[in-house]
Amino acid sequence: MGMGEFMTETRQNLLPAVEGPGPHHGSVPVGRHGPPDGQEAAVILERARTSVDPELRRAVESLPGSMRRIALYHFGWQHADGTPAAANAEKAGKAIRPALVLAAAGALGGHRATAVRAAAAVELVHNFTLLHDDVMDRDTTRRHRPTAWAVFGDADAVLAGDSLQALAHRLLAEDPHPASSAAAARLASCVVELCAGQHADTAMERRCPDDITLDEVLAMAEAKTGALLGCACALGALYAGADDADVEALDAFGREAGLAFQFIDDVIGIWGDPRRTGKPAGADLMARKKSLPVVAALASGTPAGAELAELYRVPYRDGDLGRTILAVERAGGRDWAQAQAAERMARALDHLSRAVPDPEEAGGLLSLAEFVTRRNT
Amino acid sequence: MGMGEFMTETRQNLLPAVEGPGPHHGSVPVGRHGPPDGQEAAVILERARTSVDPELRRAVESLPGSMRRIALYHFGWQHADGTPAAANAEKAGKAIRPALVLAAAGALGGHRATAVRAAAAVELVHNFTLLHDDVMDRDTTRRHRPTAWAVFGDADAVLAGDSLQALAHRLLAEDPHPASSAAAARLASCVVELCAGQHADTAMERRCPDDITLDEVLAMAEAKTGALLGCACALGALYAGADDADVEALDAFGREAGLAFQFIDDVIGIWGDPRRTGKPAGADLMARKKSLPVVAALASGTPAGAELAELYRVPYRDGDLGRTILAVERAGGRDWAQAQAAERMARALDHLSRAVPDPEEAGGLLSLAEFVTRRNT
To answer: Where is the composition biased (Low complexity) (chains A, B) (predicted)?
Structure first.
């Protein structure tokens, strides 16, 4: 169960429900250009990366040498030996959060260009949490490369993360835009929520799986993944000069879309193609992670759920991966997660339509929301 | 070599030079109340704690439960089991940084009360770095209690530190004072410098002692300890509406005073009374730490320096502590550190007198600078 990082998946439709017939089934309203497809989202993401990267890069380049080196590696701009790396989205991540900031600003009638610093700040916060989470979770691979701590050690990865958090706040503090202080306060509160979410996640991993409730794991996923997507959308709204109600609606939109994403991410973590996810097949199950489908399966009261609990009681043994996957599926974990993803998407669109009733104006946000739950490249 | 934390020392005059006759020997100009003594500093620190604690506590209380618990423990407001602890300065630290913010604001003609949030923000940043540094340095004791990571684990201590950094930035983002954005940008830059300093420190500990130059260890001490004291003074000046030159002079004052403090701290770490420092005698030497007197001794080109290098080449063996202490002393490490402390204090006072020529107006800052280098309780 990753920290909301977007893996490489090509047009693997894991969520037929979100393409259903009506808005309450989670489908996306049709705008001028027809239903948003992966192509449109790819264009939006590429445009966001083009706008935000120079700001992001300038911030990282301002770091003292020791911190700069780690940050440049983490962002995929340098190899571990300090030589320049060819920029590509796979190494740098998908820029979904900056794209949400810019799209939200545009949807609420603001100018995308004025929100570029806020977008870079959100991306810096995201990457600060990735650096720290990888240390805590002992994850050795991120974006198909060794994680920063695996290359530079724990201390340096933590310090580089600390520096990126500071850079995020500095970008906003130096931004003359009238919304920058409100945005900074909101981003700081979001960081606190992200920390609480990561705490809940690591604490849960140490607990007996049978003791964990669905409510707990949902709250954790909202704090860990939903909060920053919500904050990204809220910052865009703030920069567009939106009123409180619209800012909160955009936050709720991003949170629900983030939860929808997390459900899909957990499904892919179990049933996705390892050649596309870049992770070994069933890694989360072998590590006995309490992902959303797993907790749902454990709480199902079914014989398959009981079998899963039995399997999870002991560390992974060679050969029981197939049985584990099957148990989650038979206990309804996969169906539930997919239905939840569709439900969260429906709620997300509901929130969005309150702030931005015109589907054409909401187009960019819709494409991005669709993208994160369809998981096109 | 601690991260600028003030240990409990009672009127142990380790630095006769700073009490010399003239300003160029580092003595303190005489104000209306005669030369500042520990008593005056104690009053200033106590008053700062009284002003800032409610703001600090409100910020910490706003954290979600999991993060709040760790922060309350770290600040000495709760025991590890979550029961309230009697507040006392020994557990909460000496509030030297908030006191510098308030004193600097006052010295530059501002109102102390308006700078309380900035003072709390600086204290939050200081405590965020303590939480993280203790994890990296594997320090098990802080303020006479087990460190947060020793009680709650590494991940939670890192997350609580992350949360405190975020709280610091939120306090400034929510502060309507016209200087708050400039202060936030400056504090964020300071965090980056603190991280680079901590990186240099941990990297140095892994290197062969003979390869480390005095310049390197001085730069590290300035980044790790001087930067935040300088930032505290600069923030006070900003909140008083001071011009750029005065803000920079106050920053330089704090930096030099911070370096003076670090020299004294390192001297105490070797020759201080363990009953007063709260650390085992010679702990830094036994851990083969490259403190300022040690690096100076190693670089001295004396027979004692060579003997010290020999001792430092291997891990601590029972019985060689006495020889190690003597080697540092005979190689001139102690004398050099004390002379450097005096020199730094003289420079600090020089910077201060440019921005605040009237010793009476500078009184609070002078008392605090004197305090950190005399190390009264």
So the answer is: 18-33
β pairing state of A145-146 and A141-142: antiparallel
Confidence of residue B173 (pLDDT cuts 50, 70, 90): very high
Angle, vertex CA A121, rays to CA A119 and CA A126, nearest 5? 95
What is the chain A residue with the closest CA to B178? A181
B170 contacts on A by Cβ (under 8 Å) = 184-185, 188-189, 192
- Reading the block at residue A336, the tokens are 């539930």
Question: CATH fold of A16-374, please?
Answer: Farnesyl Diphosphate Synthase (1.10.600)
Cβ-defined contact of B199 to A159 (cutoff 8 Å): yes
C-beta of residue A93 within 8 angstroms of C-beta of residue A143: yes
- The ipTM estimated for the assembled molecules is 0.89
> For chain B, what percentages of helix, strand and coil (3-state, to nearest 5) are there?
70, 0, 30
Beta carbons within 10 angstroms of residue A46's beta carbon: 14
Mean pLDDT within B232-246: 98
**For chain A, which residues make up each domain, given as ranges?**
16-374
Nearest to B192 among A67, A191, A198 (CB): A67
Winning range, highest mean pLDDT, from A244-258, B74-88, B271-285:
A244-258
Closest CA to A130 of A68, A82, A188, A194: A194
Q: What is the pLDDT of residue B108?
A: 97
Residues of A in contact with B163 (CB under 8 A): 191-192, 195-196
* pLDDT tens column, B296-332: 999 999 999 999 999 998 888 878 899 999 999 999 9
CA separation for the pair B9, A349 (Å, rounded): 62
Residue pair A262/A294 in contact (Cβ under 8 Å)? The answer is no
Contact B181 A203 (CB under 8 A): no
CA separation for the pair B344, B349 (Å, rounded): 9
CB distance B266 to B291 below 8 Å: yes
**CA atoms of A344 and A261, how far apart (whole Å):** 9
Query: What's the pLDDT at A261?
Result: 92
Match domain B37-374 to its CATH number in 1.10.600.10, 3.40.47.10, 1.10.760.10, 1.10.1420.10. 1.10.600.10
Give residue for tokens 């009490």: B19
CA distance B248 to chain A (A): 18
